Automatic annotation (TrEMBL):
GO cellular component, one term: microtubule plus-end
Alphabetized SUPFAM superfamilies for the sequence: Ankyrin repeat, Cap-Gly domain
Domain of life of the source: Eukaryota
Family matches, as PANTHER family: CAP-GLY DOMAIN-CONTAINING PROTEIN, DYNACTIN 1-RELATED MICROTUBULE-BINDING
Record-given protein name: CLIP3_4
Ranges in coiled-coil conformation: none
Biological classification of the source: Eukaryota, Metazoa, Spiralia, Lophotrochozoa, Mollusca
GO molecular function list: microtubule plus-end binding
Keyword Cell inner membrane part of the UniProt annotation: no
Organism: Acanthosepion pharaonis
ANK repeats: 185-217
Gene3D superfamilies per the UniProt record, alphabetical: Ankyrin repeat-containing domain (1.25.40.20), CAP Gly-rich-like domain (2.30.30.190)
Length: 337
């Protein structure tokens, strides 16, 4: 072992020792590598396998740290994703806060669980069970990954985990169904699902009121994000699903550009934002202390002038995006300002 490798191991060990979990306060766990048993280390494709007796023994050790189990969660293998329940339960049993984050991906346990039901890799039934458990224990469905700007709903839409989408929308009363994601040109969950040919996700989102006419930063409606079926082999499953999604979109009932706000003028809002060098969805800070995402910019019925609506990161706001019975945008109660 070189001196550099030895120093790195010491530094990593000190990080794990100093990383004390606190169930009352969310934290970001340091980035480490997943542990491996001796047999898995010798294998041609070495990764932590929860089905391996040697790896199971490591997982259940009191000395195995939370960051190491987060590192296991990052493995996109059927062995890992189909054992998501065991892994997340181990993290919680070791004292993690329900909203702790992985230091490498900035994802929470709910983020990981929401995508763990992906077809061909994970188990949708298990993912749904874990998502329900996490929400019952207080997991916040509105938290965004700081790297991808995605919420749990965005992850479930991307990976086509329809049962999880239903649980998340029931939990939030679907107020976040059209929330955008900057990683996808400020498209909604429906844009994300359509672009990834996630048929079941598209179907569930439309059934729950997702706006099929909403446009992203590139001026695209969700139907415009569906890949051309001609790009796939004519008889392939992807071609068939893309065709079905394209046919499904026009069947949704027509909605206004913002069905919640009858006074919303998208042209005026766009001009105002361009003048300020901003766009909807941008991160903003209010009075140097409150941070959140810009969700509305335009006139209001409660006062003259141009007003901004902010979805705050923390539950320290005044409303859910509605003032005086008029909804200017939608967010969780006390997250609006």
């Amino acid at each position: 072992m070189s001196r550099e490798e030895e120093d790195d191991e010491i530094f990593q060990a000190e990080n794990l020792v100093n990383c004390t979990p606190n169930p009352d306060c969310p934290m970001i766990h340091p980035c480490v590598d997943p542990p491996l048993c001796s047999n898995c280390q010798k294998s041609e494709l070495s990764f932590f396998d929860p089905n391996c007796p040697g790896c199971q023994e490591i997982l259940l050790r009191p000395t195995t740290a939370i960051p190491e189990i987060f590192a296991i969660l990052r493995q996109w293998t059927p062995q890992t994703q189909q054992n998501i329940e065991v892994l997340i339960n181990q993290i919680l049993e070791k004292g993690a806060n329900i909203n702790d984050r992985d230091g490498l991906t900035d994802m929470t346990l709910l983020h990981y669980a929401s995508k763990a039901g992906a077809s061909g890799v994970g188990d949708a039934e298990m993912a749904s069970r874990v998502v329900t458990m996490l929400i019952d224990k207080g997991a916040d469905p509105f938290i965004r990954c700081r790297w991808t700007n995605m919420t749990a709903l965005h992850y479930a839409a991307y990976f086509d985990v329809a049962p999880v989408i239903k649980i998340l929308l029931k939990t939030t009363k679907a107020i976040d169904i059209d929330n955008t994601c900057s990683e996808f040109d400020h498209g909604s969950s429906l844009h994300i699902a359509a672009s990834n040919v996630a048929y079941n996700a598209v179907k569930v989102l439309l059934q729950n009121g997702a706006n099929p006419y909403m446009k992203d930063d590139l001026g695209r409606q969700p139907i415009d994000c569906v890949p051309d079926p001609k790009n796939f082999d004519e008889e392939s499953e992807m071609a068939k699903l893309a065709t079905k999604i394209r046919k499904m979109m026009p069947e949704a009932g027509p909605v206004s550009p913002n069905p919640c706000s009858p006074i919303f003028d998208p042209t005026q809002s766009r001009v105002t934002l361009q003048a300020m060098g901003l766009r909807l969805g941008d991160k903003v800070v209010i009075n140097g202390s409150k941070s959140g995402a810009l969700r509305y910019c335009g006139p209001t019925e409660f006062a003259a002038g141009i007003w901004a609506g902010i979805e705050l990161d923390e539950k320290i706001g005044k409303n859910d995006g509605s003032v005086g019975g008029i909804s200017y945008f939608r967010c969780a109660q006390n997250h609006g300002n």
